[in-house]
Amino acid sequence: MDKFLNVVQKVSDWIWGLPLIITLTAVGLYMTVLLKFFQFRYPLYIMKQTFGSVFKKPKGEGTVTPLQALTSALSSTIGAANIVGVPAAIMFGGPGAVFWMWVIAIFGMALKFSESVLAVHYREKNREGEYVGGPMYYITKGLKMKWLGIFFAFALMIEVIPSLMVQGNSLAGSVAQTFSVSPLITGIITSVIIGLIVIGGIKRVGKTTELFVPFMALLYVGAALLVVIIHIDQFPNVLSLIFSSAFQPVAAVGGFAGAALSDIIRWGFARGLYSNEAGFGTAPIAHAAAKTDHPVRQGFWAIVGIFVDTIVVCTATAFVILSTGVWTKMGASKDTDALATVAFTETFGTVGSYIVTISLCFFVLSTALVLVFYGVKQAEFLFGVKMGHVMKVIYLGAIIVGSVGGAKVIWSFLDIALASILLPNLLAIVLLSKKVKELKEEFFTSEQYYLLDIKKDKNVNSSL
């Protein structure tokens, strides 16, 4: 069994090395060029249409508000990786990896925009009157490849099981270490909470994440900002480190072993892509339920999702690690998962470790919540609403099993399962890229959408 698992691990490491990084980057660049670099050309307009419209009544039809769709999607992307993944990128790729994380996030915006636009365009209403969509729908309806849509849905439905086990184990381990609570008790409480929320469908999930996500992001990012302010004298040095080491090999310093330029770029790209899940096909499932008058308008919310996840939350972690200097201490590379905790503890004492643990708990709990929702939607697509209820029970059980460290063999297949949903989705984005371009051009040239918004802004400004 050990030899078999070693083979699985080697295959997984190879797939999630250069092959997928190159593939994701290539598709992101392709969509950016095809869409005429729109994320560079309309940043202020995109912000106005998203964060600037939070308190306005949503336009068009849908099941949840655009903000609720965004927070639901962010619940999946803002997770443990934001706290433990970024330090790993710095330890193995150096400070310059942060720069490349920013670069790939910008190109990843075109990817996430595209899949979310397609999800809204090809969405449907289910028997319960909820809007549903995602890769399984645009592959089936847009590409007329039902077999591939079924494959995607089945692969994601199964992939959620090991993902939930890992999330449950991460949450239970953190709680046990900080608060000495039994992992089994943590697992049961977590599954009950998630079960009560998910049973209410996307509306309850959206309302929960709408409160949950801003709170957990502000708690963590606010604490990180305090760390940076306390070490404000290091801020110029941190910026210098990030930009100067982004284009050249980095020498060893203390506990940092040094990194070649290829490693710097690779770790930066990997962290950016894996954190914001651009191209994975998961976020579109949440965005498909949003109230909107045009697919492109909801696509803007997908873009700001990457901004929040990578540019804000991941960067907050990076600045904490670099400004406190914990990345240069001896032995730092041996336990990268604990670096954020070490940095916060050195700054705030015991309170610092509580901040990281509580943030991690919120991150993991919200991720698990939306993973269950995603998995249930795949079951409904494949077998109907009743099977969705069955899978809820299986998923909640997986959280409990994972919390006590059970079925770890299944975890070994997690990365391979992720690749099995990623590749069909990337293929669909490329094959349906002309439809994305068509919808984007329609939005920006129509008197109903972009041009109307611009006229309204001019009228408002002229009246002031």
In summary, what is this structure?
Helices cover 77% and strands 1% of the residues. It has 22 helices and 2 strands.
Radius of gyration (CA) equals 22 Å
Given the helix and strand composition, which structural class is it?
Answer: mainly alpha
Report the portion of residues in β strands.
under 5%
Q: pLDDT average, as an integer? A: 85
**Coarse morphology:** globular
The residue ranges in which pLDDT falls below 50 over 5 or more consecutive positions are none
Largest sheet: 2 strands, antiparallel
Quick one: CATH class?
Mainly Alpha
End-to-end distance:
72 Å
CATH architecture: Up-down Bundle
The ordered string of helix (H) and strand (E) elements is HHHHHHHEEHHHHHHHHHHHHHHH
- How many helices? The count is 22
Number of strand elements: 2
> Which fold name corresponds to the CATH topology?
Amino acid/polyamine transporter I
Strand order of the largest sheet: 1-2
Percent helix: over 70%
Number of domains: 1
Subcellular location: Cell membrane
Protein name: Amino acid carrier protein
GO molecular function: amino acid:sodium symporter activity
Keywords: Cell membrane, Membrane, Symport, Transmembrane, Transmembrane helix, Transport
